[in-house]
Amino acid sequence: MMGISEPMRTFYLVRPYFYKNRFDISAGLLCLVAVDILQLFIPRVLKLAVDDLTSFRATTKDLLHYAIIIIAIALAMGILRYGWRLRLMGLSREVEEGLRNRFFSHIQGLGAGYFDKTTTGDLMAHATNDIQNVRMAVGMGLVALTDAVVLGIAAVGFMSYIHIRLTLFVLIPMPFIVVSAKFFSKRMHHLYQEVQRVFSEMTEAVRERFAGIRIVKAYSLEEQDAREMNSISRRYVRMNLALARVIQSFFPMMLFFANLSLVLVLFLGGRQTIRFAITPGDFVAFISYLGLLTWPMMALGWVTNLIQRGGASLERIERILNTLPEVAPVDPKKARTPENLDLSFKGVSFSYAVRSEAEKTRPALDLIDLEVSYGTVLGIVGPPGSGKSTLISLIPRLYDVTHGSVLLGKTNIRDMDPGLLRTYIAFLPQEAFLFADTIEQNITLGKAGVTEERVWDVLKKAALDLTIQEFPDRLKTLVGERGIILSGGQKQRVALARTFLLDAPIMILDDPISQVDMATGHRIIQGIFSDPRKRTVIIVSHRLSALRFADRIIVMDQGRIVAYGTHAELLVSSPYYLKNHQLQTIEEEFGAR
């Protein structure tokens, strides 16, 4: 159909839902076609009634008979209309649900690198506005398209039965409708893409301002943010107005051609009636059929509008669904399990993805060789930006190495199923993220079978048990969005308790005591080192006191390992380590006074 070929390219995304619901769709379409056909009999009843009236043959009984027929048709249409709405609108909702679930699952499967360059607002716009547009195109688009074809063809057939020559005159405007639909559809498709793009920007801007509302208030940025939002909103309105101008030019043109047909019927059909070539009843029926034909002509414009909007949204969704995860899943038949849990880095280099040549910088990691025997404690130190967090994020495959390999035992972790690999690892990221839920749920993350005693045990290890006991609701305390009711140190310790709960053989902690005081930090580190269970512990920390009992410590700078050894050895071999130790010792002495 004209103006629809471009969006139909992405139809394969919703095709499975059509196949799955093919019987319901067939039943719905049968009901819809039946409604269209029943509508066509009403003008025939009117023709008989008008002819009887104009020839003075009509009686009260005849008129009652015609009225009963129309009421029966109306009741049948009502029942059938309920049937097609239940099935076809139900299909659109199922497509919406399935597409949204598929989109969400796919997004969750993408690597951390994807989220480094994609805004949350853009993804929210895809998951809401775009999928809603697809739903409208599938539901009402299918209905309008069926109406346009069935009702249009049938109405022309009934009109031809009355007077074929008059019907041909009525159809004169049709080629103009085809040409105008073709002309406007491309422009509409482009504008829909632009409108959705600006909507994504606006969604992200709103989300970011609300998430950072405390910073906005603290720095009195309300007026500045309001101006920026006003600018984005005006741009969104301008794009919508440009789209509206195209649409509102299209629909009046469709109406003009429909009314042009009515003019031809009144003039030519009226003359035929005067000359008794057709009866007054035929003339009334012909006008009624023309009225029925007006809806298919309008539906042609509407279905073009719906499908262009849905097609533009489907293309945006398709681009994301076609994005391959950076951490590719492993074929279950080829997936391997490690022979032991020794960890090693062999010539590992890593660079973050860039969008242009100008953004290229030195690698975040450069030729890292490292061996970590199972059951040992490795400390990692270095200045900000030296590659510490990047190094540990390669172990659970939040990112994949650019060159070299990371081995667990003798197995390359790229040959392991990512889900299996992560069962061996308890990972505490540098940023402590909490969900808007209770403290207990933020620790267990919905894990079944975790007793309250076990939760208190890990809170004690995280040096947070006494604090939580002072809260009125204790473990049932709601922490608010991103844990806003808690201090930075409390959030960090809730996240640390979550890590302890996993009880995994490899524990990776990225700066676990950066937001707590020295006494609390000492208590946490003491709990980690005094744990009798055998496990590998990797700790990134700027506080050297947290690492002094580590089996080995590496010093990183500019993505390379520049020194390694025990605490005592690094005090002799590493100027950076010695300087920081001296400064922190002075700081601890002053803090103790």
Total helix count? Answer: 19
β content, as a range?
A: 5-15%
Oligomer: single chain
Sum up the overall morphology in one term.
elongated
What is the radius of gyration computed over CA atoms, rounded to a whole number of angstroms?
35 Å
Q: Secondary-structure element order, as H and E?
A: HHHHHHHHHHEEEHEEHEHHHHEHEEEHH
Q: Give, in spatial order, the strands making up the sheet with the most strands.
A: 6-7-8-3-9-10
Helix-and-strand structural type: alpha/beta
State the total count of DSSP E strands: 10
Percent helix: 55-70%
Distance between the termini: 83 Å
Q: Major sheet, described briefly?
A: 6 strands, mixed
Spans of at least 5 consecutive residues with low confidence:
1-6
In round numbers, the mean pLDDT is 79
Structure description:
The longest helix is centred in the middle third of the chain and has 53 residues, at 222-274. The chain has helices at 15-20, 22-54, 60-109, 112-116, 120-162, 164-170, 174-211, 213-218, 222-274, 280-321, 388-393, 418-423, 439-444, 452-461, 465-469, 488-502, 518-529, 567-573, 575-592, and strands spanning 343-350, 365-372, 377-381, 403-408, 411-412, 425-428, 506-510, 536-540, 552-557, 560-565. The protein has a 6-stranded mixed sheet. The protein starts with 14 loop residues before the first helix and ends with a helix. A hairpin with a 2-residue loop joins strand 4 and strand 5 (411-412). With 593 residues, it is α/β, with parallel strands linked by helices.
Task: Please tag this protein with its features.
19 helices; 593 residues; disordered N terminus; four-stranded antiparallel beta sheet; six-stranded mixed beta sheet; alpha/beta
